[in-house]
Design brief:
The complex is a heterodimer of chains A (171) and B (180). Chain A is an alpha+beta fold. Chain A has four helices and eleven strands, in the order ββααββββααβββββ. In chain A, the strands form two sheets. In chain A, strands 4, 5, 6, 7, 10 and 11 form a six-stranded antiparallel β-sheet that branches. In chain A, strand 10 and strand 11 form a beta hairpin. Chain A is globular, with a radius of gyration of 16 Å. Chain A starts with 15 loop residues before the first strand and ends with a strand. With 180 residues, chain B is of the alpha/beta class. The longest helix of chain B is centred in the N-terminal third of the chain and has 21 residues. Chain B is globular, with a radius of gyration of 19 Å. In chain B, helix 2 links the parallel strand 4 and strand 5. Classes of the chains: A alpha+beta (171), B alpha/beta (180). Chains A and B meet through helix 4 of A and helix 2 and helix 4 of B.
């Protein structure tokens, strides 16, 4: 089976990767620089003014695969970004709705953009994978990301927690 | 894979490993389904009325009495691009059967879709979800994704991600469901 992965269409310098894998889960963070991120959306025929708005922020693209559990819950609201022990607020979908209205982005491109983001909630079934971007404000210093997954069809299992340190927005 | 050694201990480890593999395969193939096919709860399919590339309207309500293979995709999605020729490959096999193969392109222009489909799967004529709202309504968990709607208009299965539909396991699955 070919996984659902949002795949970039360019091939310049490789993106920055942070990877975790065990017998329960595969998790990789892909962080693209401005050129790579712009190319990703140019490939989806986004207009320049929309891409400029995207480049004002920091996109982190987790790729997740459930290797063990009946269900592994992707819920970005429970993922915590911190810098100097202070939380970094995630940029959510409502922010983009306003931005896209201001720049006049077509409904079709808004829909496509939505499909490039990580779902707000998704019960990944055994052997299922998913990918999508999570957005935070641009950061100039390394930060920490604590990823929290509930497990089990009814979230009855032991949570899975993975911490990535020294994550950096590339530009 | 565990390191294997000779002697009784090695054989026991090997048997345990084989046992784990079998258990894993069973977990994938619940209800005898091929990998990546999820059973749904038989809920009513959402409405779907869209035009194809020729401007002809298709309404899911008109497909009662048939199984519908309803495939959501986009040209920018790598797994979708790899999967499309395999859908083209099964089109003839299920022509005049109880399986109707229907594609929904998510939020792309006619030019983009025509250029891709014309080169890769010229016998397919996708429905155009030009503003992406039909896909939003159906919530296919990701792209690509394929819903199976039964002859009563109920959602029975969802195929997650892309695959080679021309492989025997998936052909068997399709042949079995249309006999239900």
């Amino acid at each position: 089976m070919w996984p659902v992965i949002i795949k970039p269409v360019y091939a310049a310098a490789p993106p920055i990767l942070h990877k975790y894998e065990d017998d329960e889960i595969f998790l990789q963070l892909v962080i693209r620089n401005d050129d790579q991120l712009a190319a990703f959306y140019v490939g989806r025929e986004f207009p320049k003014n929309a891409i400029n708005e995207i480049l004002k922020t920091c996109f982190i693209t987790p790729l997740v695969k459930n290797n063990k559990f009946d269900a592994l819950w992707i819920e970005p609201d429970s993922w915590v970004f911190t810098l100097d022990n202070q939380p970094i607020e995630r940029i959510k979908r409502d922010y983009w709705k306003k931005i896209w209205k201001d720049v006049g982005l077509s409904q079709a491109h808004q829909a496509t953009f939505g499909w490039t983001l990580m779902p707000e909630t998704r019960d990944l079934r055994f052997d299922e994978g998913a990918g999508g971007s999570i957005v935070i404000p641009e950061q100039t210093r390394p930060f920490t990301l604590r990823v929290h997954f509930n497990t089990g069809l009814y979230k009855e299992g032991k949570p899975k927690v993975i911490t990535f340190k020294d994550v950096l927005c590339p530009n | 894979m565990p390191k294997l050694t000779t002697g009784p201990t090695g054989i026991i480890k090997l048997l345990i490993y084989i046992g784990l593999l079998v258990a894993s395969a069973n977990a994938v193939a619940k209800e005898g389904l091929p990998k990546g096919i999820m059973v749904l709860k038989g809920q009513d399919a959402p409405p779907l009325v869209l035009k194809n590339l020729d401007g002809k309207i298709w309404d899911i309500e008109q497909s009662r009495g048939h199984w519908v293979f309803l495939h959501f995709w986009a040209t920018w999605c790598g797994p979708c691009r790899r999967e499309m020729p395999t859908i083209q490959a099964i089109l003839q096999e299920f022509k005049n059967s109880r399986l109707e193969i229907v594609l929904v392109n998510t939020a792309e222009s006619e030019d983009t879709v025509f250029e891709f489909i014309g080169a890769v799967a010229p016998d397919l004529n996708p429905l155009m979800d030009t503003d992406g709202q039909a896909t939003e309504l159906w919530q296919p968990r990701g792209l690509p994704a394929t819903f199976f709607v039964d002859p009563d208009g109920k959602l029975q299965y969802l195929a997650l991600g892309g695959r080679n539909w021309h492989e025997p396991a998936y052909l068997d699955f399709l042949n079995k469901i249309i006999k239900k």
